[in-house]
Amino acid sequence: MSFKNKVAIITGAGQGIGLEISRQLAIKGASILLNDLDENLATNAAQQITEETNATCLAMAGDSSDLPFIQKMVDTAVEQFGRLDIVIANAGITLFGDFFTYTSESFFRVMQVNLGGTFFLAQAAANQMKQQASGGTLLFTSSVTGHQAHKDLAAYGMSKAAIEMLAKNLVIELSRYHINVNTIAPGATLTERTLDDPNYESTWSKLTPLGRPASVADIANAALFLVSEEARHITGQSVIIDGGWTSISPSPY
Q: pTM value?
């Protein structure tokens, strides 16, 4: 897969899955606008990618659920690179909480970032791709929790299931403009955040049929295929990347 002369926006990419997707796209020739809420993470990630790949990677720190900022990301990508081909709405937050005491503040923040950020980034990007008349590709990050119930993640699971329905619905809206849209649904994945738990890897190695949680490269490999020219006839689909966990769904609790 080559992404030479392609321009991509990836949100939530200062570390973890988003960073690895950005890195792999850059290795294969894409120019990247890399977003993260944390300015230091965004700047360091973009610098790391530029030094490693010699590709152009522009850091843009900000809230990926803020509507003016979303439009600014799209406008900046076009101003800097001349076009927009790939948008990966990867940013999201997980706020655990018991259903009986879950606060409205937590609920609406999860929906704002996970749903609102994805919806309005897709809208802004699709409007730009429509103007270009050359098509494009959108990819959303869902989760296995959008497929299987998980303790203390009712709101988060809701948001992820809704993202997959959004991708299906956008097939109706976007196909005529040669824009395809899909989701990836990662399961347990080794990232900087999950490795803060010293038991995470051993726990999920036991629960995952293939014997280990995913690496960020496992997720990025699937993502790159779905935003490549080789996958342009795939749209409205969700690819679960979980080592088989959703087939049997053992709980870590």
A: 0.95
Is 156 annotated as catalytic? yes
**What is the domain extent for residue 34?**
7-194+211-244
The one catalytic residue among 130, 151, 156, 200 = 156
Q: For the domain that residue 158 is a member of, what is the CATH number?
A: 3.40.50.720
Concerning whether 102 is annotated as a catalytic residue, the answer is no
Cα dihedral 130, 131, 132, 138 sign:
negative
Digit-coded pLDDT (tens) for 91-112: 999 999 999 999 999 999 999 9
Q: For residue 202, is it within any domain?
A: no
Q: Does residue 124 contact residue 11 with C-beta atoms inside 8 Å? A: no
In tens, the pLDDT along 75-94 reads: 999 999 999 999 999 999 99
The total number of structural domains that make up the chain? 1
Catalytic residue among 28, 102, 130, 160: 160
Q: What φ, ψ does residue 252 adopt, rounded to 5°? A: -80, -5
Tell whether 204 is covered by a domain.
no
Alpha helices by DSSP H, listed for the chain, are: 16-27, 39-53, 67-81, 104-110, 117-132, 154-174, 200-207, 216-226, 245-248
